[in-house]
Amino acid sequence: MNPTIELLKSHRSIRKFKDQQIPRELFEELIRAGQSAATSSHVQAYTVIHVVNPESRARLAELAGGQPYVESASDFLVFCADMKRSTEAAERSGADVTRGMTEQLLVASVDVALMAQNVVIAAESAGLGICYIGGIRNNPQEVSELLKLPEHVYPVFGLCLGYPDQNPEVKPRLPLASILKQDVYDDSSDEALVAEFDDTMARYYRERTGGNKSTNWSEQLKPLFTSKLRAHMKEFLNKRGFGLK
């Protein structure tokens, strides 16, 4: 293994940060590293909002479900899928543009995720810790109003950045055989592999909490398909100009 692979495999979410600011020069280098990520057709369909106002940070922590590390991290970013800049550029160049296509939503969402992950790896390589905040999508309209996001821009997730004040274990991942298929999608062994992974995660949670948490991977997924559905997202995206055509 080389250091880059080891770094990638050592990722943990950090939710407790030291009271130490990231130097501005390093912060800007992290964003530049993010810009170096692959981007569909060189569109670069993203905008990053660096939220520094304490009141805005507090409000975002509330809107994201009461996550205090949104306030306590050195820096908090909101990564936005942005088709406004590129669409208007094409329009100014003489194109009769079409807005609101599903492909545009996918391109922008993928672009911003790739860009953010580059920022994350750069940050971790510098000894920083991170935590993605998907709770930004709990109240996307309120977040958009707070950040004054225009049409054809939507907030995808937040990101806490700072110096770690904890050292959690690396969370196990699914067995490679369950996610790496050859030639075709063969799920004949998936049930057994998931059962194996459930046992692994049950041990992980017991050891991590000193026996205070009894659950597994499959159990943890239930809210994703029952209560954490964010049914508001379709209407919200339509209003943002990302109507599914």
UniProtKB/TrEMBL annotation:
MF (Gene Ontology): FMN reductase (NADPH) activity
Annotated signal sequence range: none
CDD domains membership: NfsA-like
Keywords in alphabetical order: Flavoprotein, FMN, NADP, Oxidoreductase
Domain of life of the source: Bacteria
EC class name: oxidoreductase
Entry EC no(s): 1.5.1.38
Domain Nitroreductase: from-to ranges: 9-163
Annotated PANTHER family: OXYGEN-INSENSITIVE NADPH NITROREDUCTASE
Name recorded for this polypeptide: FMN reductase (NADPH)
Gene that produces this protein: nfrA1
